[in-house]
Write a structure and sequence with these properties.
Number of helices: 18
Structural class: alpha+beta
Organism: Streptomyces oryzae
Protein name: Cytochrome P450
Distance between the termini: 33 Å
Helix content: 40-55%
Oligomer: single chain
Largest sheet: 6 strands, mixed
Shape: globular
InterPro entries: Cyt_P450 (IPR001128), Cyt_P450_B (IPR002397), Cyt_P450_CS (IPR017972), Cyt_P450_sf (IPR036396)
Strand content: 5-15%
Keywords: Heme, Iron, Metal-binding, Monooxygenase, Oxidoreductase
Radius of gyration: 21 Å
Family: Belongs to the cytochrome P450 family.
Length: 450
């Protein structure tokens, strides 16, 4: 669950401050000659709303970032930052205490060049949770979550994962019987409802709330959502989770929300705001991660039939499929963001105090120095273990990684067992990503079940 949290506030759709907008950033780059794109003089634009966005062409985006070097200069919808593109540097920096989550240390925030109008502010100024604090406070909040998200609780949720998976597959099979040959969107029919239902079951959320949560998160992550609407979405999510925490505080049950409220070891109990913040962040990041993991694994296997055959014949395990997918198509493309509290040297360059640093996990997963010259190839036969960073590293490593792996380990074999003739219903070139900057999210995955 290594993705953006939901909270904060937003307003207009432009970044305040002279010269801070995308047009100014583009205009500062030389038309010919001068610094290479991303080298520091000419940032690489990562803007889903631009005329020809790299965000929708991930292979080109990854190559541009790699070409710029281990530390590349980027423009995130009008706000400049650095991004890390290699495994070794990311692993080192993710444990560097000089890089913190506190937005008040960001020079663009302090100067007012970035304010609440920035379209990505809800992913950076994300309220109080274990995802947004560091040091002792982070350890306190994370410890409480670890107490709640125990191996016992994960083991207990497995039957629910299997039940929900079976129900969704039954519905797909019924559709195939009624409309043989008609394509099915695997995202809408399977990959999206499964993790949402699982995380709601884990948290003790009533099933009737699932469509509402799905609608809210779809609107929050999409860069096509007008900023005033996103503000309303954030407010509605805040109120929904606040009500949930209040209800569980009054009448706790055997669920994650109640466990967070009742966790009492290792310091002060969590406040209602902290419980809400942790839950919001975990649901936002957790279900998105698993949706992408399932869809990208299916797409990879269907476009590599020789490898799919190895898996179905039992020569390669599903764990290898999951880990190779996490490396090859990381669910989080760009994780926002950390801020330097002092100058930090990275690969011969310097991130200055107050500057922002992003981790570009898709580029990191394709790092040839770490994974070999064939890093751009999907290969479930890679030597184990596949040491990727898709769930992060260090103090902020994703606490829900085990849940995502559990869901994928149930969903993928069940899907291919039920539909052994599963195939893509469109050419792979027609499969598009949504206009989401932080997530590797497909718009849809049309398949034929038989």
């Amino acid at each position: 669950m290594n993705g953006p949290a939901v909270n904060g506030s937003a307003g207009r759709t432009t970044v305040s401050g002279a010269g801070a907008g995308p047009e100014a950033a583009a205009g500062s780059c030389p038309a010919d000659g001068g610094a290479a794109s991303g080298s520091g003089g000419c940032p690489i634009s990562l803007d889903p709303l631009s005329i020809d966005p790299l965000v929708g062409r991930l292979a080109e985006e990854t190559e541009a970032l790699r070409t710029a070097g281990p530390l590349a200069r980027i423009d995130l919808m009008g706000a400049e930052a650095w991004t890390v593109t290699t495994h070794a540097e990311a692993r080192r920096l993710l444990t560097d205490s000089r890089l913190v989550k506190d937005i008040t240390t960001w020079n663009l925030w302090r100067s007012g060049e970035v304010d609440e109008s920035w379209p990505l502010i809800g992913m950076v100024d994300a309220g109080r949770s274990m995802f947004t604090v560091d040091g002792a406070e982070h350890r306190r909040l994370r410890t409480k979550t670890a107490q709640a998200l125990t191996p016992r609780r994960l083991a207990a949720i497995r039957p629910a994962v299997e039940r929900i998976t079976g129900e969704l597959l039954d519905a797909m099979e019924a559709h195939a019987a009624e409309a043989p040959g008609e394509p099915v969107d695997l995202k809408a029919a399977f990959a999206q409802p499964l993790p949402m239902s699982v995380v709601c079951s884990l948290m003790g959320v009533e099933p009737e709330l699932e469509p509402r949560l799905h609608r809210l998160y779809e609107a929050f992550f999409s860069m096509l959502t007008p900023q005033d609407e996103r503000l309303a979405v954030i407010q509605e999510l805040d109120e929904l989770y606040a009500e949930m925490v209040e209800e569980k505080s009054a009448s706790p049950g055997d669920d994650l929300t109640s466990a967070l409220i009742l966790a009492d070891e290792g310091g002060e109990p969590l406040t209602a705001e902290e419980v809400r913040g942790n839950l919001e962040a975990m649901v936002a990041a957790g279900h998105e991660t698993t949706v992408t993991l399932i869809l990208c694994a299916v797409r990879a296997l269907l476009t590599h039939p020789d490898q799919l055959r190895l898996v179905l014949d039992g020569q390669v395990g599903w764990e290898a499929v999951i880990e190779e997918t996490l490396r090859w198509e990381s669910p989080s493309t760009h994780l926002l963001m950390r801020f330097a509290t002092s100058d930090v040297e990275v690969a011969g360059r310097v991130v200055r105090e107050g500057e922002a640093v992003v981790m570009s996990y898709r580029a990191i997963g394709r790092d040839r120095a770490q994974h070999g010259e064939d890093a751009d190839c999907f290969d479930v036969r890679r030597s184990a273990p596949i040491r990727h960073l898709a769930f992060g590293h260090g103090p902020h490593i994703c606490p829900g990684a085990g849940l995502s792996r559990l869901e994928a380990s149930v969903a993928l074999p069940a899907l291919f067992e039920r539909f052994p003739s599963l195939s893509l219903a469109v050419p792979v070139a027609e499969i598009r990503n949504r206009p989401v900057l932080t997530q590797n999210e497909l718009e849809s995955l049309p398949v034929r079940l038989r």
